[in-house]
Amino acid sequence: MQTAILPQILNTPEGIEADRILRKCVHCGFCTATCPTYQLLGDELDGPRGRIYLIKTMLEGGDVSNATQMHLDRCLTCRACESTCPSGVEYARLLDVGRKHVEAQVPRQWYQHLFRFLVRQVLPYRMRFAVLFRPAQALRPLLPELLKRKVLPRPQLPAWPTRSHARKVLMLQGCVQPTLAPSINLAAARVLDELDIQAVQVGQVGCCGALSHHLSATEEALNFARRNIDAWWPRLEAGA
Predict the structure, then answer these.
(1) pTM given for the model
(2) What domain count does the chain have?
(3) pLDDT one-digit tens code per residue, 180-215
(4) How many Å apart are CA 28 and CA 187, to the nearest integer?
(5) Distance CA 95, CA 16 (A)
């Protein structure tokens, strides 16, 4: 792909990186086959190829609008597209650059800021989310069918494996997963236990920072990551 990125952007480390990534894309469309938002919405601009075009246009000085922001916001950053790209386009990194520039150029409404702030104050914190989720469980019979299927009763789970093994793996507990799907980590721990590997959960570890990162709260995301590294580091030095 040919590019004509603005000099003031191109002459920066992230501009050089974005230019390199863009030039790899051949617009073959393989990525659309694995993109969940494209499969759901069927809009070219809600697939990786369309979003790459929007980011390229923005970096070249073209029009940037609320529509640009909306289509970039809709990306889940699941990176499934990267698994099918024959050219090795680092789409997620390009999206980071694009989101940073669109945030600087397109102001959000106050209610968008409020909603994004509340999401960042609730979802990354296990206890806060669990407390707010309990009333939804209690009111489950009164909820619409769509929500009723998502608000499931908390299952009775077996105990976490207690055997000690020489090989240990650190397991991220996650944010909403312990409340919404608590059996996932437990099932993994039980399988690992059968393979003589001990799954270890560290209490001080919390959100990985992805949610904050995707909502353009970069420093907050880095703080989450730093906290987890600090909590894990003694275990890693001990051989996990």
Answers:
(1) 0.78
(2) 2
(3) 888 899 999 999 999 999 999 988 888 999 999 989
(4) 39
(5) 14
